[in-house]
Amino acid sequence: MPDDFASQSHIRLGSNSGKPQTRLDGIAKITGSATYAADNAPQDMIWAVHAGAPAARGKVVALDTAAALAHPGVIDVMTPENRPELAQDPDARAEFFAMKIDVLQNDAARYAGAPVALVLAETLEAALEGARLLAPQVEAEPARIGFGSSEPYEPPFVGFGSPAKTVTGDMEAGFAAAAQNVEVEIETPPQYHNAMEPHAIVAQWDGDRLILDTPNQAIVMSCPMFAAYFGIPPENVHIRSPYLGGGFGSKAVINAPQILACLAARQTGRPVKLVLGRSQMFGPVGHRGATKQTLKLGIDGEGRLTALSHHAVAATSAFDDFLEPAANASLNTYACPAISATHAGSRWDIGTPGAMRAPGEASGSAALECAMDEAAHAAGLDPLEFRLRNYAETDPASGRAFSSKELRECYRLGAERFGWAGRPLEPGQMRDARGRLIGWGMGTSLFQAPMFRAEARATLRADGTAVVETAAADMGQGAWTALAQIAADGLGLDLAQVEFRSGDSKLPDAGIAGGSGHTATAGSALFSAGQDVVAKLAALALADPDSPLHGAGNQAVTARDGRLFLAADESRSASYADILASAGQEALTGNGEGVRNPKDAEERAMFSHGAVFAEVAVDPDLFQIRVTRLVGAFAAGQIINPKLAESQLLGGMVWGLGFALHEEGIHDPRTGRPVNGDLAGYHVPVNADFVQIEALTVPEADPYVNALGVKGVGEIGITGSVGAIANAVWHATGRRARRFPIHVEDLL
Amino acid sequence: MKSFEYLRPETLDEALAALSDPDAASLGGGTNLLDLMKLGVAGPERIVDLARLPGLDRIETLPDGMTRVGALVRNSDLAADPGFAAAFPMVAEALLSGASAQLRNAATVGGNLMQATRCAYFQDPFAACNRRAAGSGCDALGGANRGHAVLGWSPACIAVHPSDFCVPLAALGAEAEIAGPSGTRLVPLAEFHLLPGEEPHRATALEPGEIVLALRLPAAAAGFAGNARYLKLRERTSYAFAVVSAAAALRIEDGTVAAARLALGGVAARPWRCSEAEEALAGKPATAESFAAAASIALSNAAPSGANGYKIVLAERLLARTMAAAAAGTPAEMPALPGSLMDDTGEAAHA
Question: Which residues make up the CATH 3.30.365.10 domain(s) of chain A?
């Protein structure tokens, strides 16, 4: 790439970015023409349904395979006795993102719902009935469910390789310097992703090539992971995942039913479709693990933190480790000379947790923001003033400068919009005209702004239109649209001139749609691919004696509206189509990579920030809670598509309300079976739960995160919102939430 | 799913003949039965779809003044019927507070009466449940039972009936019109659902082979239309079963309660008619004190069946609140969030 383009540390995006473009796949989705994985039905396809363990801990001692096989339409039953070999030990965790999975390797039941057999049938109905007729019986031991059920252990790491223990500064000295300490203990329950689209897979083999239609958040990355189970080269796996009906982290890693479906397809020589029922999503596809968090805040006489210790016991399964890195939420939010973030693990007989929208940050921020509210009250300060007194000018954990941080403006704008001024310090002071208790609470939002690695390809065609390609994942967040906007800007074309191909593992690797880094990562690759095309075009034009741009030497050219302009004299320009035609080229291809500048990554702390303000109305006798207003203000770098960004931020805030008031995966304490494994019992918020909800964005220029200045908006909305609502409930009622979701009996 | 025979009779006689098979089940809107079949909780050999039975999709006034609602009338249609909603506003409010719009469009009046408890252990074929499998035990006892019964339960079963609709019906003295091999009969709605006792597997007064043909509401029930409310506490604003709910209808004369009709939902295996509280309230001034006293009577025999003692407090307070709301007068228009304490949107109904 010529220096003209690479040397700009912060690139001005073109006319497509920044527009509230309606999602390009919207019509296809609402008319039903968008093909989701389970919509595929190849010739000769059969159905697979797995039977789940009815108890969480024990040994499967009976499976009535004869009854299942005798049912009309049932083709075969796969059990540990006849399951074909896998090329990789499913308990090996061979790769960083691979979890241990239950694929009939033995007769152990390690959690309720773990696959104990797979029924193959000509119809879905026959497969379901076959699975029911298996009537699995488990010689069960009592399940370990809950924090008291096993001894905590010290984990080597939490989350995806994050340190389990981080201490900065002198904790003892910090607490010694405190005028007072505030201690808070908060429990959060298991939560289940419950994407609208259940996990599904249609698997077919063509010789030793495996073709998969399955929703996937990390399309290219998953190919070698599938391949490893079947002993085939990664390039022999083809994943098609054009649309995901929500992912939230649960479609980023491979799960057991998927592998069983692939095995069944290979064994039968027929395409196999497997779609999880809603109740089957409470086990083998991950969840947000429960936490029990203890915070101790030391504050001096002026309301400044002197020490902050945050300890989280995180629940994981009995056989694998994914620990919610909840305490780490305290490492980067508030200035404090001594911070300790530590974790312990707690083994439950439950499916292994995994990443769920804002893993660690959601649970950790919920507890931290509640603790900060108590500390503000103890210090006699307004919660916003208290947070401003403890504003972190540099990253508290590392001391590094922030790449950008417009949090102060978020506080100001959010507070102004909400009307925070004049809030009484004491709880129970406000009532509405109907006598309901009114409370105001707030929380700080924080989420990392990571970049992974992505590649993209852009091909300019003879007519001046272009094809851009990268295997991005649109899980509803709007990747089809926002990434296309960036790609068009990279090419200097209007969005309508660009055909965006995505969602297929044969395309360049777009990395993972997770960690709120997809737009930044894949977008950077797409932009850079477009710029590569423009640079090559410029070289053609400058070298062409007949071109209006000929002889411009090293003077920069600008790409816009399908033309190259001489920057210094815009009367001199040439269209892309003419440049290609003059050069006798049918097409011109450019490649791009999206990766963070290592120096910036090393030197800067990179986060999105925000502030959420909540108003609740609480019935004084019956303690029904209504969130009457929820206002968030967020600084997340360059906003590519304000409409989609707002939707993402609002979605996060909706999740925050669900976390605070609704979501709770309940497991029977004796058997470990899910008690509310459906959408009637597992409550997520409904439209009627929202009266007024608003997400604002604050302009933020960030020359370090990436050339586009893009951070992420997918997860930050949850953080801050949970605490804001819980703190508002306290402000209304004087009662502090000690567990989520807040139940009416906790307030009575 | 288990294979089954599907019949759609055209006449009542055909339907009753088809239902003489002990493994047959009748189908209304299917909003509960189909779920139970998918869960493996119900496994009928024969489904008898009542959709084509003539004359059961009507709301009519009988010569004696009774209102008769056919079993096939959809919940949404009944709630939207102007005459019905005006005469029995708290019934309409209860209907609209239940489920979701999509479910209400499918669900029928007869099916609502026949719906099974949503006790998670009843719905889990691997759990012990005396209601589902007689004599197998009750895993809800000692299990996750925040939502379970505080009235009328037995050690054999602590489940609650989930209906909103049936709560005001029980209060108003509605009757179920039942047809069977030996003719038709009427059963008071407050006794239609059976308390568990020793035999929780028998959920309703329906004998084998019988179906619900219609609901009947006495003419006198319309006399409460001016002061009638249904309020429902739930864990989200829509699409959630009641934690507890209450129906209160009052006839107030000169500031005195001449008559009261009260019932609670979400507290027992049946919609809980509060007859003693009704009697105690009659003749008392329509004041908060009277309502609190009556509510206290209604819950005087309540006892937690697990981690649900809070429901006793809530039910008592809610019943008193609902009486107060009824005393304030039935709203001229259906609230935007029917049955909700949270009705503050001022917008069109979208619950």
Answer: 3-34+452-595, 37-141+198-244+251-281, 291-450+602-747
Over A396-427, what HEC string results? CCCCCEECCCCHHHHHHHHHHHHCCCCCCCCC
How much is the ipTM here?
Answer: 0.96
B91: its two tokens: 């019934």
CB A193 within 8 A of CB A253: no
**What architecture is domain A37-141+198-244+251-281?**
2-Layer Sandwich (3.30)
pLDDT tens column, A394-448:
999 999 999 999 999 999 999 999 999 999 999 999 999 989 999 999 999 999 9
Determine contact, residues B32/B115, Cβ cutoff 8 Å: yes
Average pLDDT over residues A81-98: 92
- Measured in degrees and rounded to the nearest 5, phi and psi for residue A431 equal -135, 150
Q: State which residue of chain B sits closest to A432, comparing Cα positions.
A: B344
Residue B261 distance to chain A (closest CA, Å)? 22
Answer CATH for B224-327 from 3.40.50.300, 3.30.390.50, 2.30.30.30, 3.30.450.20: 3.30.390.50
Non-local (6+) Cβ contacts of B309 within 8 A are B150
CATH number of B5-49: 3.30.43.10
Does pTM top 0.95 for this prediction? Answer: yes
Do A54 and B126 lie within an 8 Å CB cutoff? yes
What confidence category does residue B66 fall into, taking pLDDT thresholds of 50, 70 and 90? Answer: very high
Chain A residues in contact with chain B using a Cβ-Cβ cutoff of 8 Å: 54-55, 72, 125, 128-129, 132, 277, 279, 434, 617, 619, 621-622, 624, 626, 628, 661-662, 666, 668-671, 673, 675-676, 680-681, 683, 685-689, 691, 743-745, 748
- CATH no. of A291-450+602-747: 3.30.365.10
